[in-house]
């Protein structure tokens, strides 16, 4: 199946999970197409000054893969800067957040997959 960018669902969130500014998610795969393995398959964009608030994963895990920009991430309370080509894996039961730490848009792939050990 081929999906053109113009046909992909785009969600815009303000202050997502207690964060700041605006998050834009472009869905390149939807939950129904994912054969029960996950619930989020997006390219995310955080504008300068924007963030996703600190949150805990329960029953699933999340991976961010940085495409461009600079991210300040919290991995269970430990803060680190990530750049293009870097990633963060947040397993079931762990917590994280992400913030744009630059003056340009931060773009990254975000995947949330179910933890089969808890499903």
Fill in the keyword field for this structure.
Jelly Rolls; six-stranded antiparallel sheet; four-stranded antiparallel sheet; mainly beta; 119 residues
Give the SSE layout.
Layout: E1 10-14, E2 22-29, E3 38-46, E4 51-56, E5 60-68, E6 70-75, E7 78-83, E8 87-90, E9 95-100, E10 106-114
Antiparallel strand pairs: 1-2, 2-3, 3-10, 4-9, 5-8, 5-10, 6-7, 6-9
Describe this structure in words.
The structure is a single chain. The chain has 119 residues and is mainly beta. The chain has one domain: Jelly Rolls (Sandwich), CATH 2.60.120. It is 0% helix and 57% strand. It is built from no helices and ten strands. The strands form two sheets. It has a six-stranded antiparallel sheet with strand order 1-2-3-10-5-8, with no helix packed on it. Strands 4-9-6-7 form a four-stranded antiparallel sheet, with no helix packed on it. Strand 6 and strand 7 form a beta hairpin.
Summarize the structure in short.
By secondary structure, the chain is mostly beta strands. The protein has strands spanning 10-14, 22-29, 38-46, 51-56, 60-68, 70-75, 78-83, 87-90, 95-100, 106-114.
| Major sheet strand order | 1-2-3-10-5-8
Tell me the major beta sheet: 6 strands, antiparallel
Shape: globular
- What's the CATH H-level superfamily name? Jelly Rolls
CATH class: Mainly Beta
């Amino acid at each position: 199946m081929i999906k053109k960018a113009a046909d992909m669902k785009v969600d815009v969130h303000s202050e997502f999970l207690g964060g700041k500014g605006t998050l834009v998610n472009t869905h390149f795969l939807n939950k129904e197409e994912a054969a029960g393995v996950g619930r989020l398959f997006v390219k995310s964009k955080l504008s300068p000054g924007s963030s996703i608030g600190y949150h805990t994963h329960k029953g699933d895990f999340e991976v961010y893969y940085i495409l461009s920009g600079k991210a300040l991430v919290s991995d269970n309370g430990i803060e680190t800067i990530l750049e293009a080509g870097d990633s963060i894996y947040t397993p079931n039961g762990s917590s994280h957040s992400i913030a744009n730490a630059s003056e340009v848009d931060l773009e990254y792939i975000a995947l949330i997959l179910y933890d089969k050990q808890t499903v």
